[in-house]
Amino acid sequence: MAEEGFASTLLDNAVTELSRLPGLGRKTALRLALHLLRQDSDAAEALGNAIIEMRRGIRYCSVCHNISETDVCPICSSPQRDSSTICVVETVKDVMSIENTGQFRGLYHVLGGVISPIDGIGPDQLEIDSLIARVEAGGINEIILALPPTMEGETTDFYIFRRLGTLPVKLTQLARGVSVGNQLEYTDEITLGRSILNRTPFSH
Amino acid sequence: MAEEGFASTLLDNAVTELSRLPGLGRKTALRLALHLLRQDSDAAEALGNAIIEMRRGIRYCSVCHNISETDVCPICSSPQRDSSTICVVETVKDVMSIENTGQFRGLYHVLGGVISPIDGIGPDQLEIDSLIARVEAGGINEIILALPPTMEGETTDFYIFRRLGTLPVKLTQLARGVSVGNQLEYTDEITLGRSILNRTPFSH
After folding, report:
1. Which structural domain range is residue B77 located in?
2. Longest alpha-carbon distance in chain B
3. What is the ipTM of this complex?
4. Coil, strand or helix: which one is B82?
5. What chain A residue is nearest to B70 in terms of C-alpha separation?
6. What CATH number does the domain containing A133 carry?
7. Which of A48, A152, B27, B89 has the fewest CB atoms within 10 Å of its CB?
8. Rounded to a whole number, what is the distance in Å from the CA of A126 to chain B's nearest CA?
9. Which of A16, A22, A67 sits opposite B35 (nearest CB)?
10. What is the pTM of this model?
11. Which chain B residues are Cβ-neighbours of A36 within 8 angstroms?
12. Cα distances (angstroms) measured from residue B95 to each of A8, A56, B67, B102, B170
């Protein structure tokens, strides 16, 4: 019998695998496993198969490194997107967030992280060489830096700026400012300060 | 493209199935799915298969209704357990908790819940008839009621007491009292009051 007195190695295996997921402890994993045992067997089959099929079917786009079911993702291969603009993001999730705004019709480049010496992440572990190669291949007018407004994100912004050197491409970044709908008193001082310096003409 | 702009129906399926688990919202489910995509494919296969195999291989013991990989569970079929004592618990998890104490060598009976009119749970939805049948079959000297010390648990205790009627079996319940290692000031008044009324001879 296992340390925690599970009567079943099958249960023990499922709990062990579930508890490998980030943020799930063994207690939560046990709760989820017992929940699945109470459901129709269809529920467990559907969950198990969905996980296996997702991992088998999804790869990373060879151009932008977003997730994709094909070698080149639907965004990179769409003739309706503006292929002269590349938005550089940290993660796959950021692509989803920007797509959800419906405000961007260009392409993406997913770095897979930001430069963080403390975490041992240098430029070589990120998809920066492949970004420079895309620009060098020509046809790119603008790179939008959409990395997080943190020290690591800004370090990475600056590194990319340096690597682009004299390549003929416009480099922009997301506007910083007060969040829409936020109270001013809850906006941090640096953001508030920048939003005064970078004030824009009143639009109505 | 789905509501949330997922580029992949495979990802969408996995997120949907994960978010059916209790306590996992769609955001958490997406985080877990993206984590699995970053791991070796072995990790997703192991998790998916562990879930499917657990559900296929585990059933409920036909005697005590604990989870089991066989028709009668290892506890019920063990010659080393005291088959004259049955501990009545609410859930499978309670069996694990009591087994972990190493203090009980009898058998169990898992009710699958407690009587709760507010939640629409009556005696018929619980394994109470099968408990009475076990006692009527003979050979049982003691029933230990180990249901939660809540109104619902105590209602169920009383219902079982009534159903047992004049059957020749000793009925006991878990000792109520101050938790070992707890400060008195954090013990609720009812528990503290009962632990004074039910004080026991000093043991050293």
Report:
1. 73-173
2. 71
3. 0.82
4. strand
5. A8
6. 3.40.1360.10
7. B27
8. 14
9. A22
10. 0.80
11. 21, 51, 54-55
12. 13, 38, 10, 11, 21
